[in-house]
């Protein structure tokens, strides 16, 4: 009878110990440093190819009241905007419409208007804004910008996958900060 009692007491302990063992693997969450992108607009003359956002060009459109409407707020071209390199050493800049020029650190060359910066960790879906070019024409931009976390079973970490689809005037342009988010307009 003594062995039977020990057996009865041992079974729940063994089951409890085995229940604590699972095949669930712990995954690490590395620290990610995301680029906070802006939508960039290059505007050129259809006949000459001249960059109409270059302040040194006589036909530049910068004298017009160009503005973006987003989230019920109007953003005019910021007079004090200075281009900043997209590096880990810079902090995100507040949402604004900026005239940016050639920058040796940036992948985007030439004068352009940049509207942003947007944070992918904000989970932006179904966003839209309108650029009013100050001459009665406009450009509508619709975009999503969000992160999907996926398990990397081999390295036991979560990997970030940033999604950034964008549409311009109803036309899908794909994804990617340095591809789809660069809009070239001829006038």
Automatic annotation (TrEMBL):
The keyword Signal applies. This is DUF4843 domain-containing protein. It comes from Alistipes shahii. Keywords: Signal. It comes from the Bacteria. Residues 1-19 form the signal peptide. The lineage of its organism: Bacteria, Pseudomonadati, Bacteroidota, Bacteroidia, Bacteroidales.
């Amino acid at each position: 009878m003594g062995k039977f009692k020990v057996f009865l007491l041992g079974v729940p302990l063994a089951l409890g110990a085995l229940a604590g063992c699972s095949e669930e693997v712990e995954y690490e969450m590395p620290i990610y440093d995301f680029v906070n992108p802006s939508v960039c607009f290059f505007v050129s003359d259809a006949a000459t190819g001249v960059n109409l956002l270059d302040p040194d060009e006589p036909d530049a459109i910068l004298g017009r009241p160009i503005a973006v409407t987003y989230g019920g707020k109007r953003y005019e071209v910021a007079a004090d905007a200075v281009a900043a390199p997209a590096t880990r050493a810079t902090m995100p800049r507040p949402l604004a419409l900026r005239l940016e020029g050639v920058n040796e650190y940036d992948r985007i060359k030439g004068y352009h208007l940049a509207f942003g910066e947007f944070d992918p960790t904000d989970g932006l879906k179904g966003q839209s804004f309108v650029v009013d070019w100050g001459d009665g024409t406009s450009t509508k931009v619709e975009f999503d910008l969000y992160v999907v976390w996926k398990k990397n079973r081999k390295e036991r970490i979560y990997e970030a996958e940033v999604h950034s689809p964008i549409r311009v005037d109803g036309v899908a342009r794909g994804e990617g900060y340095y591809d789809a988010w660069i809009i070239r307009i001829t006038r």
